[in-house]
From TrEMBL:
This is GTPase Era. Belongs to the TRAFAC class TrmE-Era-EngA-EngB-Septin-like GTPase superfamily. Era GTPase family. InterPro entries: G_ERA_dom (IPR030388), GTP-bd (IPR006073), GTPase_Era-like (IPR005662), KH_dom-like_a/b (IPR015946), KH_dom_type_2 (IPR004044), KH_sf_prok-type (IPR009019), P-loop_NTPase (IPR027417), Small_GTP-bd (IPR005225). GO terms for biological process: ribosomal small subunit assembly. Monomer. Gene3D superfamilies: 3.30.300.20, P-loop containing nucleotide triphosphate hydrolases. It comes from Yoonia ponticola. Its main location: cytoplasm. GTP binds at residues 14-21, 64-68, 128-131. The lineage of its organism: Bacteria, Pseudomonadati, Pseudomonadota, Alphaproteobacteria, Rhodobacterales.
């Protein structure tokens, strides 16, 4: 007798840098979401897929939403709309907060909207980075958060180190609805590989440039060619908003661009398990933040950026 299958969508929400992408990658067991120390790095809702449960009967489809923050620009507004949309469509919502930051103004703003935005979804609390605070402070934070909102369950975790994540995954596997799986067994993400490849390059740019990096850049995979020898040729474009930004991305004698290209290519080869020929161009598009096509590439709704 076969075990009945279960499947459901799990939305990870929280402030920028709460650790959502790190938790998603740990749950899936592979890197499907960009992880940097710079805030607001996740733009599109990336779905990572994990198998869980005692008999491996549950398929968890994780939605890594952009961080919830006070939006100022069109891109910011579209990202926040995507985050709340992801929460509203999910079977389970996991609110992530940072243990050492506690109940910030941003967390308070999220709590105020939770009831109206999550519908009938169960909402769990995951307090992340628990290694940064003492037990007494952690217990006090847990108590106060549960006084402010009726969470279905609370988990104390370290997404980076893996502490407590197994218990969270087990609970999620129990909570998702009974039904057929939504994706093939061997699929770990529903983002096209073209998008994941672009995100990997954007991550390397972010890590390399740190504070110099303007937010006004995006990476698109323009062409993907499968070669007879089993390798892949990938052509990408980095769009920047100003001429001066192009020089920053190129670096002295093109050293920054070369280093980014090498780092992205090596990670793509590891991810795909085969050789990759990566070619990256940098182009200035002064108004790309106002172009509908760029938002479609990022999986965002252009209209959501309207004031």
């Amino acid at each position: 007798m076969t075990t009945p299958t279960k499947a459901g969508f799990v939305a990870l929400i929280g402030e920028p840098n709460a650790g959502k992408s790190t938790l998603l990658n740990r749950m899936v067991g592979a890197k499907v979401s960009i992880v940097t120390h710079k805030v607001q790095t996740t733009r599109a809702r990336i779905r990572g897929i994990a198998i869980a449960g005692e008999s491996g009967e549950s398929q968890l489809v994780f939605v890594d939403t952009p961080g919830l923050f006070k939006p100022r620009r069109r891109l910011d507004r579209a990202m926040v709309a995507a985050a709340w949309s992801g929460a509203g469509d999910a079977d389970i919502v996991v609110l992530m907060i940072e243990a050492h930051r506690g109940i910030s103004e941003g967390v308070k703003a999220i709590l105020e909207k939770l009831n109206e935005r999550t519908g009938k979804a169960k909402v769990a609390l995951a307090i992340n980075k628990i290694d940064k605070v003492k037990t007494e402070a952690l217990l006090a934070l847990t108590s106060e958060m549960n006084e402010r909102f009726a969470f279905a369950e609370t988990f104390m975790i370290s997404a980076e180190r893996g502490h407590g994540t197994k218990a969270l995954k087990t609970w999620l596997a129990e909570q998702v609805p009974s039904g057929p799986w939504l994706y093939p067994e061997d699929q770990i993400a529903d983002s096209p590989m073209r998008n994941i490849a672009a995100e990997i390059t954007r991550e390397k740019l972010t890590l390399r440039l740190h504070q110099e990096l303007p937010y006004e850049l995006t990476v698109e995979t323009e062409n993907w060619e499968e070669r007879p020898d089993g390798s892949a040729r990938i052509d990408q474009i980095v769009y920047v908003a100003r001429d001066g930004h192009k020089g920053i991305v190129l670096g002295k004698k093109g050293e920054t661009a070369k280093a980014v290209n090498t780092a992205a290519r090596l990670e793509l080869e590891e991810f795909l398990g085969r050789r990759v020929h990566l070619f990256v161009q940098i182009k200035v598009r002064k108004n790309w933040l106002e172009e509908k096509e760029r938002y479609s590439e990022m999986g965002l709704e252009f209209k959501d950026g309207n004031k």
